[in-house]
Amino acid sequence: MSSVSDDHDIEYLDARGDCRVGVDPRSQKRSSHVASRPMRPVKLGPISVPTPVVLSPMAGVTNWPFRVICEEYGPDGLYVAEMITARALVARNPKALRLCRFAPSENVRSLQLYGVNPAIVEQAARIVVDEHMADHVDLNFGCPVPKVTRRGGGSALPWKTDLFAEIISRVVRVCEPADIPVTAKIRVGIDHEHETFLEAGRLAQDEGCAAVTLHARTTAEYYGGHSDWTRIAQLKQALDIPVFGNGDIWGADDALAMVEQTGCDGVAIGRGCQGRPWLFADIKHAFAGSAERCNPTLGEVCRVIMRHAELLTEFYDGDERMAVHDLRKHIAWYLKGFPVGGATRKSFMECESLDDVRCQIDRLDPSVRFPERVVDKPRGRVRFAKKVHLPYGWLDSRTTTHQERETLFGDDPMDASY
To answer: Is 0.85 topped by the overall pTM?
Structure first.
């Protein structure tokens, strides 16, 4: 179903005009809570990931303070920085450069690039290589956000096979001499009438990607319903390079179930670790065959909150107000399920300094146990199916025309800003 909007975006849903509900990952969960076999390390070029778990890039979330906290729980995973817009990096945008920072403690500096113009993405990759910014580059072909897809980017881009292959080829060509592995993150497709994941996976492999991560939803499904893990299994069977599965992993048992049901080489964690950075420790234990899990008290969670606030202050060059404002969304996730009351939550949202955060923490009962009813459950708002915004005529052909490229590659200042 399609309709043309006033600004010439095309809106698409699947054939039913709704998202298709995939397999519920919790409907077939294992009765045991340890891996049936130890998970093998994944090799990405010169990089070894002993515990094959990846922190997926999330805008506004996976800056280095949050990555450091996650990595302290699972030090042998892979922790990817939030998406960097290629044009912004080439333009030396201050916020883009801030997001490219890594903490000295990070074992592997992993950075994700987004762009539509192959020449600009190549230039950004060249900056990463020449300035020794990262050890690993991931390419974003999975973002479903309208402001990205309406420009042909993110999860809309694999539909254009020539553009998809060219971006990967150019980046691999730049990164390969520096021994920097390149990976790609993709979705199932635009909707279930326009699926691209198998072809995109093969193209990524052919053009030199070291691994592919599949978020098992379409763009139209956004983050709603349940991801369809059978698609991860299909992609794993089709490729020789490692495949990481992504979607609906809220606890270590979900990670075990995904691996068992799909045969994937590892898992990528997005929303599941929001407010729960210890999930990486749980998955590490589970993959090693241990039933050990973290079950923090409110006091232990508050210590994580305070450390997060302090690291964010460092990230913002000592600006406590900026740090505490950034922390607000995390506070909601950290406190999810704890019986702290609406007034307390509101008080945290009004904090303006580290002392304000400490004051609120001191008012809480540190002995309160982590609520069983929210263990391994989704947090935050569930975002259901959305209409997909694409450039006009995007689905008319699998390759780009000269006119389309001229339109897509125009000098858009929004592409260089944050």
So the answer is: yes
